[in-house]
Amino acid sequence: MSDIIRLLPDSVANQIAAGEVIQRPASVVKELVENAMDAGAEQITVHVKDAGRTLIQVIDNGKGMSPTDARMAFERHATSKIREANDLFAIRTMGFRGEALASIASVADVELKTRQRGEELGTYLHILGSVVQKQQLDPCPEGSNFSVKNLFFNVPARRKFLKSNSSELKNIISELQRVALANPAIAISLLQNQSPVFELPPENVHKRIVSLFGKGINNSLTPVETETTLVKISGFIGQPKYAKKSFGEQFFFVNGRFMKHPFFHKAVMNGYDKLLLPDCIPSYFLYFEVDPASIDINIHPTKTEIKFEDEMAIWQILQAAIREAIGKYNLMPAIDFDQRGSIDIPIMPGRGSHFEMPGIEVDRFYNPFHTESQGWKPGYQRESVPNQWEQLYGGLEKKEFAPGLFPPVVERESIAFRSREESMLSGESASDPQSLATGATFLQLKNRYLLTPVKSGLMIIDQREAHARILYEKFVQMFGSHLSASQRLLFPPVLELSPADAEILQALRQELQQLGFEIRAEAGNLFYIDGTPAVLSHLDAKELLDQVIASFQEQPVDLMEEVRGQLALILAQSSAVHYGVALKQEEMNHLFNQLFACQSPAYSPSGKRILTILPMAEIENMLRG
Asked: With contact defined as beta carbons under 8 Å apart, do 36 and 62 qualify?
């Protein structure tokens, strides 16, 4: 039998490696920018066309490469950082595997122009699908200029799975944000189709955070600083009152490298113990400096997951540092006992003392048409009208009042029972909502559920899920008809967003306008909300759009039909009536009628059950004991 195991060609092996390292255009940007930083660049400019599908160009002013190094850089496992195995435990640079450029060249059309400092001529290199097409001398500027064209041109399956341009650009922005926060001393610029997305000058960490996430975050930042023999932790955390219900402003860096670490995130959350609202996440930008020998960064192809030797000890140090910063800068909520300027309310006298209600002096003979004969004359003493308390209840103690004037205090928990008609229904069923709604008796239980009798028993309706179903179908109908009423705002609220969030909102603007939102974009990622849908005019428009943006941070903004359905779901869930809200009888009737006018009244848009019926037989069995 012949041998069946063969050695893969380098081009195929590079494409396999590209599947791990180069997943999308953002991966190319990350690898090229990190190489530029390793080359000592002080200024890096990134140009992308069609969110990186057509072109990714990274220009830096680093030390450049010689003609031999430029050719060797595209060989697999070629690196200038590693000489022996022990070097893996003393890594302080970004790229070290030597797979990035080889992987990029295997799935794209790559051109490189590079010149070392002090040299008269540089090198031009053209590689297409791992095959060198051309290499020659070139009078290019100092530094390196990488141009990656037609990404995944020879891997159609991989290119087919790329998301929309807005989603891919959002990923590119996120990668550059991480690099920019880790290296604030480096100037970084990003241009999409020749239009600048952001231009960051060299600055300190605090200013870099404000430049990326807007001036609104400036008031929230609180410094963190601690140093031990194991780790030095510095950076900033957000104040509890500015915490959001979504991720996006949470960053860990170790030795200048971004990392994801859920275990350390839990330490931060424990540091905020009992200071955050439910489901809220604080902002944090934390920088760790540790001995490179005590961490392992070679456990994931993208090098974003890092293993620490003393993980538990650093966890405790981090939690203590967060609590120290919160206490040091007085971020905990406090009770103000200063009573200056407050109203002085006298103490009500006891039962035995004389208590007189205030009276009003009036001129009972005053007539505005007869000021001479019957009107008030100078020196006339107005008669004091007996106050109503003494006139009505004089001589009676409070305990002698008739029932109803002072209803007794009920110690047990009460529930709201509201009825439009006094009689109970007979013969109605859930299948006939119109007849039920016209004369239904509703009971609101704990301001959460609506109870109403039906022919077969007792119907229980979840008020929030029911309202979400109603709003969801309204929004879907608006998308289909392209007609919606908008409520103009007298004082438009302003959204100041990060570049990534601004890109999400730009991608959703057209769909939001169909619903009735009027959003005006200004320079500096500022958005003015000039109008909101009339059906949502009672809500906070800024908070509502923040929730919409947060919901799309972890998912692509691609097929418009899917986006519309998802947008309708998010808006419905965000604007539905909350639990704990007491409803009037008319509101309960209206909610009931609208629910059973929906196409799917039994289930909410998220798939939860809206209503159930407790059978009469089961109620009778429970009462038999």
From this structure: yes
pTM score, two decimals? 0.67
Shared-domain flag, residues 179 and 35: yes
What percent of the chain is predicted at pLDDT more than 70? Answer: 75
- pLDDT tens digit sequence for 142-180: 999 999 999 988 888 888 888 888 888 988 999 999 999
157 shares its domain with 245: no
Both 277 and 293 in one domain: the answer is yes
Among residues 172, 200, 228, the one where a domain terminates is 200
Widest distance between CA atoms in the chain: 135
Looking at 258-356, list the stretches that DSSP marks H as alpha helix, in order from N- to C-terminal side. Answer: 262-271, 311-328
Residue 108 sits at φ, ψ, to 5 deg, of: -155, 170
How far apart are alpha carbons 427 and 8 in whole angstroms? 77
The DSSP bridge partners found for residue 44 are 60, 188
Supply the DSSP string of 347-411, one letter for each residue. Answer: PPP-TTS-------EE-TT--TT-TTTTS--TTPPPEEPPPHHHHHHTT--GGGSPTTTSPPPP-
* Whether residue 250 is found in the same domain as residue 277: yes
Closest CA to 58 of 146, 177, 148: 146
Cα separation, 332 vs 237, whole angstroms? 13
Rg (CA), the chain: 35
Residue 528 lies in a domain: yes
Return the number of other C-beta atoms located less than 10 Å from residue 303's C-beta: 20
> What does the block give as tokens for 242?
């500015």
Domain residue limits at 304: 205-328
CA 283 remoteness from chain centre: 11
The CA-atom distances, in angstroms, between 158 and each of 9, 18, 153 are 20, 10, 9
- Decide if 243 contacts 277 (C-beta within 8 A): yes
Q: Which residues of the chain have pLDDT under 70?
A: 1-2, 10-20, 79-98, 298-303, 331-358, 365, 367-440, 482-484, 554-563, 625
Tell whether 283 and 424 lie within a shared domain: no
Could you tell me if 30 and 165 lie in one domain?
A: yes
- What is the Cβ-side half-sphere exposure of residue 24, based on CA atoms within 13 angstroms? 18
| Alpha carbons 551 and 541: distance in angstroms, whole number | 15
What digits encode the pLDDT tens for the residues 247-275? 888 999 998 889 888 999 999 999 998 88
